[in-house]
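Q: What does the assembled structure look like for these inputs?
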Amino acid sequence: MILPLIVFTPLFMAILAWIILPHFKPISTHILTTLGVGFSMILSIILFVPFFHFVPQTIELFPWIPLEGYTTYWSLKFDPLVGVMLFVVTTVSFLVHVYSTEYMSHDQGSSRFMMLISLFTFFMLFLVTAADFLQLFCGWEGVGLCSYLLIGFWFHKDSAIEAAKKAFIVNRIGDLGLIIGMAVIYYYFGTLEFTQIFDKLPTMINISLPLGFSLMDFITLMLFIGAMGKSAQFGLHVWLPDAMEGPTPVSALIHAATMVTAGVFLMVRCSPLLELAPVTKDIILLIGSITAFFAATIAITQNDIKRIIAYSTCSQLGYMFMAIGSGFYTGAMFHLFTHAFFKATLFLGAGSVIHAFSHEQNIKKMGDAFRHIPYTYAMMWIGSLALIGCPPFSGFFSKESIIHILSHTSGSIGTFAYLVSLFVAFLTAFYAFRLIFLVFHGKSNADDKVVAHIHESPSLMLFPVIMLSILAIFIGVMTYRLFLNPDVRFWVGSHVVLSPGVHYSLFDPVLLLPILGIVLAWLIYIKEFPINVFCKTHLTLIYEFLFTKWRIDELYTVLIINPIFSLANILWKMGDEKIIEGIGPKFLTQTTNYLGNKIKSLQTGYISDYIIVIFIFLVLLIPLIFFGSYK
Amino acid sequence: MIEITHFLVLAIILFSLGVVGVIINTHNLIVMLLSIELILLAANLLFVSFSFFTQNVEGQMFSMFLLAISAAEAAIGLSIILAYFKAKGTISINQKDQMKG
Amino acid sequence: MSNTLPLLTILWAMPLMGFLGIFLMQKNLKNALDNSRNLALFVSCATFLFSVAIFFQFDSRLDIFQLVEKYSWLPMIGMRYHLGVDGISICFVLLSTFMSLIAVISSFHSIKTHPKTFYMNILILEFMLIGSFISLDMIMFFIFFEGSLIPMFMIIGLWGGENRVYASFKIVLYTLTGSILMLIAIVAISFQMGSTSIKLASHFNFSMDSQHFLFLAFFISFAVKTPMIPVHTWLPDAHVQAPAAGSILLAAVLLKLGGYGFLRFSLPMFPEACYTFAPFIQGLSVVAIIYASLVALAQTDLKKVIAYSSIAHMGYVTLGIFSLKHEGITGAMYQMLSHGVISGALFMCVGILYHQTHTREIKEYGGVVGSMPDFTVLFFLLTLGAIGLPGTSGFVGEILVLLSAYSSSLWLVVCAGGGIILGAVYSLTLFGRIFWGQIHNKKVKELVDIQGIEKIALVSLVLIMLVMGVYPKMLMRVFDNSIKDITSILEGISYE
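A:
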């Protein structure tokens, strides 16, 4: 009974908030939705914390789509994997709710905002508790929808509208992969339910498809394309930086902690399939490392505080996919888990910074703020340290384990991924501390008016960030045994493929890399060694390339968007209006008119002409009478 | 010796004259009426000649009917032409497309 | 099922009575407008309620035709007055009575000229539509199928936009051209079979050659009606020119006659020919989906976008029907019902906007949400339905069609899925441009949010859409047996 309450309370509260929205003060909807999610959080902690009493179960609510020989149900599935996600989603969501009540309080649409994030929470919970692909897809699209509405929250801004649309459409491209994957699964397995699929796996190994793929490779590749869209992997990542048009709490909740990790969740959910698909695993490994690398390189050049963190998210998601590609599913899950907390800390901290600087987002226009906003400063430090993997913060445990596993991954792609993971660890430290130094140290670049106005956030905004940072510090130490130690029977009943345990060492030379990054950032931005200026002036080409985000948006505009629009126009103007209209109706009517006009001239009005016609036909009739076949 | 062929040729000539008269005449309704008479008479000639050569009296009977009919027709036609003349002041049919639809 | 009352005839006669009632009304009364529209509302409401009652009379466990009425009419060609419903047609009857009600409501404020004639036309259209769904005799079906054109011709031609005459002629000529072939095919069937009963024909073994000819004849006629590419160009014109009520009935019910025809005639009567032509038709459907979606992307006219999206959605219908699989046909059937509700509602929304601003140009709008918040929410939900978001009715049909399309070819799924992406592109672009952004048109600022009966109608449409999406079994249960009947005929062929 607990599970439906967890999932449906946010939905119920969102609907209730929507109904009462026009009649009550905004504060009522704030309290309502926050309480709803808080209730869900308490229940999911009750489910999650007594780890050893997991009873995998599926609650079937009522039938949804009847297929031949198998009916999909609206159902709620519970197993350890779901438990982890429930905990992450409800906790972060609750804290973000609390944060937003203050952060959004001056916005006219704050009630709408609260309602939407509550609705989002519901869809996310619905996604993770899905027992079959169709319901997962429902949650999948639902979170995409909420993300669309929240990115476009300030709908009078054209950039927000465009960003919202872009996010939805790019996600849809990924969804196409998911749909194809579902169609193939359904065709071969005759079902879409996870457990049934996993049970039937052994009989399906040797099927190959026409295109030269094996069945498993094809299915998982398609599912991965879906995951790429949602988790902003290289190629389909373009929406994530633009999504920062939305309010900051949205970025923290949706575009850092929960929705973007849905792709990772899906992949881990399908780990039994992936284990049979070596080609897809290589592809995932490759894409993951490319994503981690490219996002980190872009992050070091950006100036918008939210975009830096967004690219950082993208890069960390790359780590998770690298882990999946090397078969380290529990590690991916663990990194998802810790990342949710420290990235939410960073985002909410960034929100406080933006709040303090009167809605300025450019870090070049900040500086020397640590005295004014000490709490926020501390939170950002904690978040950044966790992000770069400094022991004993939570990021250390997850990231270290992934790098560790990657070092043992065989094959050239494995080696490449390992090198990338090391290099990205360095870059991560660099951009994280570049951000901190530019925002909090050095000399102030802001207007005097802004500086005079810098103030610490109210306690309602500080409380969630503090809670999150506490989680960001300790959650790694507390849980790494559960996640990564195969001897602890944590994952029982979840079908997640396990891998051997990881041993941490504080003296791993890998740890030097982040330190190197910090030192470099310190040299450049505190000691003002002009290395960055040197790069800008002498390596202009590379710098521009990175600063313009690898020019991928422009590339897509030229290669895909423009051709589609011109094709659309051509089809309309040429295809519809010229060819089809021309051959069909226009041609026929014109021919009819033309022939009519021609034949009309036979009617001269002269009696004699008519008589000629009569005689001609009489003469023609005579042979017909004698030789015709009309007898 | 006069064969039936000669009568046939004569009848065809008369008939064709009548037809041509109707077709190329664009001036006078009376000429048109005469031409139609000519066509009828060509038919009449055929009736009589076939009746003679086949020794069958029915043909000549029909020619009497035809004469009566053509007389009636001429009377009606002439009266129509008269009425037309009264209305239009001319019996020329060159007034183009009176019958054009 | 011991009905002594001829329920279907009564249902069928109700709009006809309303028609006569309005016809006999005094023309020059001051309140002719009020009287005629109130009577039309009453009659269409009563018809709808009555059809709901019939819907509950219907026993979905039986797969035969129910509530059958049969009288001899023209014995020399075997024609009979033969009515009856099965699971498929009862759903369409419900759809047409409901959408007629919506059409009447939507013209409450917008129709000011010749209201009497207008409502007469709406009711006679409803009568024709119900008739074509319940008749079990081909000639009767043909009469109603064609007859529905006449009121539509009047509605477009008299109350339409600036280019109405062209559009109304186009729709009639297009459909007539297609239907001539159907008439010939019906005559041919009646010669071969000695009867024009649909029921008999579905179990009659036509020879292979005649099947091909008959299939094509029916196919062309239904393809024009559906409409499929390349005989679709009448639809955008008709939609753009038609008044809101006309568009609603056209999109929601008239187009469904094509799909209904496929299910009632093509599949059960000519199964072998179906197998022969199915790949070709599926290819055509996919082309229709992509093509129409792309063309919709390029439109600047609000109504044309929705019109082209209708073509794309009907592409899914034909794709599903000619997958010749149980799921595909179920999905197509569901897609038709859902598209009926969604596109009808969307056209109603467009009508509401157009009535206040008198423009259909997308760029004239922008920022409508400021003045019409409730309307925006409803329109957005409908847009989601049109995109096929899970939880709305659009998803159920589309996903069933896509799942079944894989059994024919992977490329069908890929292309049809590409249509889904494009659908999101044009729908969201439309939504974003109209409702979001800055207000730059004075008229937009003065818009009044929906209220009263229009709001009730729109809200109920949206609720129906959501309920259909969350609990589709409610409706699928009704037509499942009838579709099983069709698939059993098809499977009987494929195993031979």
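Helices of chain B lie at 4-24, 29-53, 58-88.
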